[in-house]
Amino acid sequence: MKVGIVGFGTAGEARLGAYRGTDGGRVVAVADPSQPRRDRALELDPSLMTRPSLAALLEDLSPDVVDICSPPAYHAELAAAALRAGCHVLCEKPVAFTDREAAALVDCSAVAGRLLYPAHNYAFSPMMSTLNEAVTSGGIGSPMVATFQIKRPAHARGVAAWAPDWRRDPAQAGGGILLDHGTHCVYMALRLFGQLPTTVVATAQWADSAQRMDEAVDVWLAFPAGSCRIDLSWTSTVRSNLYRLSGPDGSVTVRDGEAVLAAGAVRQVRQLTSPTGSSTHEEWFAAMFADFTRTADCPSTWDRPRQEIRRTAAVIDAAYRSAAAGGAPLPVRAS
Ligand SMILES: NC(=O)c1ccc[n+]([C@@H]2O[C@H](COP(=O)([O-])OP(=O)(O)OC[C@H]3O[C@@H](n4cnc5c(N)ncnc54)[C@H](O)[C@@H]3O)[C@@H](O)[C@H]2O)c1
Questions:
Q1: How far apart are CA 16 and CA 6, in angstroms?
Q2: What is the position in ligand 1's atom list of the atom closest to the CA of 279?
Q3: What is the pLDDT of residues 261-299, one digit of tens each?
Q4: In this model, does residue 335 exceed pLDDT 70?
Q5: Nearest alpha carbon to residue 202 among 188, 185, 159, 194
Q6: How far is the CA of 70 from the centre of ligand 1 (A)?
Q7: For strand 2-6 and strand 65-68, is the pairing parallel, antiparallel, or unpaired?
Q8: Distance 158 CA to ligand 1 centre (A)
Q9: In terms of pTM, does the model score above 0.85?
Q10: Which of 158, 264, 288, 320 has the most CB atoms less than 10 A away?
């Protein structure tokens, strides 16, 4: 499949390398408004077609896949344009800011008859495999309580050539850490519990008086058969990652790359440390792209990624509304 990458910053550049490790995806073009970023793409692969926008790229080329790696504010608009042009779309997180925006995009993909697929790469991470295995074969039983705690001293910065601090600009990012890292935690929770939460409660530490940029957030999701706490910060004194899942018969804890499974008499310790340590996790991409191509080949499965996009947006939308209301418990609605 011929792939056009739209947005050639940190994620886009990582993607160019990651496609080389996949079957069936060949990057042929890059669109980015920044001339230095287009120059960088040509430095890495002089055979690429480069254009300043997706519209200009689509005038000259019909890629099979448009892979959107721009900042979030442009995701929905770029995805809709690519779908209408007849391309399948792989889109970085967050695909949409609200349930309403997600629903419109899902409708657009249905009308266009093309796949809309979220780059939910943490679903293909060793952490997620470890949590899944603990449930299916590790003996902890059905998930009951999950805790995801991600602490950072600051937000991740983007490429210097564009707007490196866009993550702290709500006009570009749509929110703060909840939309940025929280998106990963929410789709992981949706997959582990296999259901939409019934209620969400969230409190936030806001960086602005308009309450649009959360730099720390604490979210509690109540599922019919359990709960998940998502505790995120960009103002921590330390950098740490914790994923813990417990069931009736045991628990698994992944702390900074070390996984400990405790179920009955069993205690297993495993190292999951990333070989590259890269913040863009390109080593998880091949498995995600294999799932993307399998899904693209089978239109009857296209509802699965569409639902995940809608449900993830619905939960985050409800969490922001709860936080804005000072931690009010709110129901989560998504069709
Ligand atoms: N899934 C992950 O693990 C992961 C990791 C990093 C980033 N991301 C996501 O990737 C996206 C980009 O983040 P980043 O860190 O690469 O940012 P970045 O600032 O490094 O790069 C953004 C690039 O997009 C370009 N751009 C700006 N407006 C554009 C437009 N309208 N059309 C096309 N390109 C445009 C900029 O010129 C820049 O080159 C975000 O959605 C982010 O959440 C995901």
A1: 11
A2: 5
A3: 999 999 999 999 776 677 888 999 999 999 999 999 999
A4: no
A5: 185
A6: 4
A7: parallel
A8: 7
A9: yes
A10: 320
